[in-house]
């Protein structure tokens, strides 16, 4: 047996029982300790992520990135933390104080709660919920409430505008996101994340690439990362919903946002890239954790890369993109995936045969979409007036 | 190159036998128009004589004559020299009819003349202070107005002169005692009246449809990440849509022109650097050109200096445009990446500026009759390398990364459209004008320096939106590189300054308007000399300031995110806007 996590858990429970605690009390304490460890590790990940993000941003922008504090600037996050902890927390005079101070807590909680269901290995996870996908969506939507709370209670017009945008954006992007999540659920025939991982003898990215891309796009919108960072568009509405926050309360929004992006990576890894699966992961669970982190980083890197490369789109364009493109597309994908899946089940095709048939379906749908887009592009008149040419202004020669 | 010789038999005099007389003072040009005929005159000028572009409006206080003069410079948008006309009114009660109805571009400039000189423009729709606040007593550009720490009329001040004991007026007049408010003004009770009126005026806007919504007034600025400084836009929003926009400026005002009138002629050269601090070389040129016009035959610029001027001005244009593209992308939300790519090239050009002038930003390189220094060894090769090798490659790279980007196109195309007619009427200049399909470039339309020797095309685009204003900057960079390649190939040997460098200048009495095609548009300097060592009047026609006149027209009906990029596409620098 090579699962050190099960051993530790077993040892800890036995220790508590040995102290004379009842079985149920020991379970409660064990779960509590587990939750604390999980939350702490998640938060500590953010410390590393801040460095990674800054370094990545530096390299992508043709500059070194942090390189003063410590070797390769590794101590930069520590310096950042010291700074942010020592800053004063300012509350606006006319703010609704209770809601104002509650909002960052709710926000960070909504992100942390997602980590409950994410399987690090076959056995290490907060809870093996059988409706984990539903749970992730529900808890993620909780963040919208926090944003609205923050925006409304700040008594600031920029914050309010940010909150307006957040509600419009997050609520509408939830639709294609849920539909995209239905595809792996359909393929795995379960809503539990462990079951989904177990079903991925062939990664779902092969069978459902369109759903994976749409999930990535919609979850970027859900987090509010560029090009969808309208809720905190710094060039337009200063900092959006967290304009009035300072010190560690701002820090909580900041940390939660980083963690949320990391969570997207984790979900993408779990749902489409086979989660902890990889060579040797079943015998050595530690390897599983490594694979899980690598896959999570892939998603995280893509999101960061896009953020640093693309300008922001406008709110009406963003909603149009969602309702006129993403939602119909994912509906088509979902329906055809369901039909094909049933057909393949009848003919008892599974494994690679199943995955490749699905891939073929995706390619066909993708090709059809591109053709349709090209047609629309041609017929679409861009709203641009064109003025008649005039002669170039030149000085009269005669003088 | 104005029609000075033709003034006496100009057809305008036939058209207006009464009320219009040639300006016959020595060193002056143009016409003097009676105040009551002004609107009629300007309308005829625009509609019958083709002078449809009002470049500059400013006032001059002729204290000894007891007169206040308003000076207008009008051009034809098809090219050619200026037509200058003036209105003279008594100093005690200076009232001039407003020309906003004829030339909408006079709007801000007339407000500025009211603010700084106290000339009342009758019929102006919104005549209130623009650069100062309501609690400011007096009109500072009047010659009898003295500032709080007034020392002497003219520089150099005796107290600061080496050898004399330095004492400062500030020490004798403690802070707090130096503030004068207008009568019936109490700062304790003051609520920004202007603001209230602003907001009240904004609230009147009604919508036609049935949906019941509330409009919000949002202050974008003065502390806002995307206003490029301390600029403020009061925006009425209906949801995300801009219903009305009102620009408010003056937060960086330092009365550049008053200081400039105290300075000696030479002292003003480094002072112009501080206007548009991104393109100090072009600013130098505009001012130097105006003064050289006044000096007339007394000064000739050597060949090599002419070439160096062109080289530096074109490098400045590249610096400015590359920076403008970077900041525009920032306004679009691109998180600094294009900005940093653009800044790299800017730094390399600033290296050259530093080598020739000793400073990266405040270059102070031009002199009357030439430039300050010759090129140090090695700089010529460096410039060749940049112009022939690196810059064309890097501009293509920027083009490849940005131009066809779907998000950039979706955000910029069809946003903030300004038609050619509006652009001319609002006196828009530079890239804003040319992106609206008006191929007007001072370098071609009214050539100065040696621009008539170079081959280049006037960049022009025909859609008038933000995307075209972005593209035109790329086009202009390419044209600048073309000019630079020719200039570097032809650069002759020789002196770089006429005669020996002089500290003090005797400038003959008269007036001159020097204008150059600055990177942000037509940069004009109107200088009046009374024959002494200091200019009597020193006025800057700031493109950043005047281009803003069209801002609210461009923004209305667009989204708030669009308003930001429209402002970014105008490309203002607050040092120049507020002066």
Provide an overview of this structure:
The complex is a heterodimer of chains A (399) and B (579). With 399 residues, chain A is an all-alpha fold. Chain A has one domain. Helices cover 70% and strands 0% of the residues of chain A. Chain A has helices at 4-18, 23-60, 76-86, 97-114, 132-153, 157-188, 193-199, 204-207, 209-223, 234-237, 247-272, 285-309, 315-346, 351-379. In chain A, helix 11 packs across helix 12. The longest helix of chain A has 38 residues, at 23-60. The model of chain A has no long low-confidence stretch (mean pLDDT 83). With 579 residues, chain B is of the alpha+beta class. Chain B has two domains: 7-122, Beta Polymerase, domain 2 (2-Layer Sandwich); 256-578, Cytochrome-c3 Hydrogenase, chain B (Orthogonal Bundle), CATH 1.10.645. In chain B, 38% of the residues lie in helices and 15% in strands. Chain B contains 20 helices and 15 strands. Chain B has helices at 11-15, 38-47, 106-117, 169-172, 193-203, 256-262, 268-273, 280-295, 303-331, 337-357, 379-402, 406-412, 420-425, 431-435, 442-445, 466-490, 543-547, 551-555, 560-570, 574-578; strands at 20-22, 31-33, 53-62, 67-75, 83-90, 95-97, 120-122, 216-220, 232-238, 241-248, 366-367, 370-371, 510-518, 521-529, 535-541. In chain B, strands 1-2-5-4-3 form a five-stranded mixed beta sheet, with helices on one face. Chain B has a three-stranded antiparallel beta sheet with strand order 8-9-10. In chain B, strand 14 and strand 15 form a beta hairpin. The longest helix of chain B has 29 residues, at 303-331. The two termini of chain B are 28 Å apart. At the A-B interface, helix 6, helix 10, helix 12 and helix 13 of A face helix 9, helix 10, helix 12 and helix 19 of B.
